[in-house]
Amino acid sequence: MLPIEVEEKLVDLLAVIYAKVPWNKMKTSKNPHDIFNHRVRAASRRATLYEFVSKLCNYFGLQSLPLEAQALVDELKPYEEEILNALSREHIPFCVRAILRAKEMKKAKREVRNGEEV
């Protein structure tokens, strides 16, 4: 079982990646959440956390890791085996939390742009 602070950083990492995916350009009849869940699980089969992130970004046509995510990856690196195992078994709860966090981040960014307090 992952420590809570590691889980939260993992959810943040997934949220940052999810938020960068150009969902409006994807031509599919499938639910974006299902696609994200499946691709996180598939990428979790990689040997290292860096490979996982690279593969996940490539699945979505992201040519680089969002800058704010790199610090998270570095902080999570010591837990990579536990993280990859957890994602392969429990990808849906982690992805749901990440999608919710990404939506919160998007809402907060929109409020800041509109001059509202967060």
Characterization of the model:
Helix content is 71%, strand content 0%. It has 118 residues and is mainly alpha-helical. The protein has one domain (4-113). The longest helix has 34 residues, at 80-113. The radius of gyration is 14 Å and the shape is globular.
Key traits:
single chain; 5 helices; globular; about 120 residues
Q: In this structure, how is the largest beta sheet organized?
A: none
Count of strand segments: 0
How large a portion of the residues is in β-strands, by DSSP E?
A: under 5%
How far apart the termini lie comes to: 33 Å
Give the topology string: H per helix, E per strand. HHHHH
Q: Roughly how many Å is the radius of gyration?
A: 14 Å
Helix content: over 70%
> Structural class, please?
mainly alpha
What's the assembly state of these chains? single chain
Shape assignment: globular
What is the number of helical segments per DSSP (H or I, 4+ residues)? 5
- Residue windows where pLDDT falls under 50 for at least 5 positions: none
How many domains? The number is 1
Mean pLDDT: 92
Strand and helix layout:
Layout: H1 4-20, H2 32-43, H3 49-59, H4 67-76, H5 80-113
Helix pairs in contact: 1-4, 1-5, 2-3, 2-5
Short description:
This protein is mainly alpha-helical. 71% of the residues lie in helices and 0% in strands. The protein is built from 5 helices and no strands.
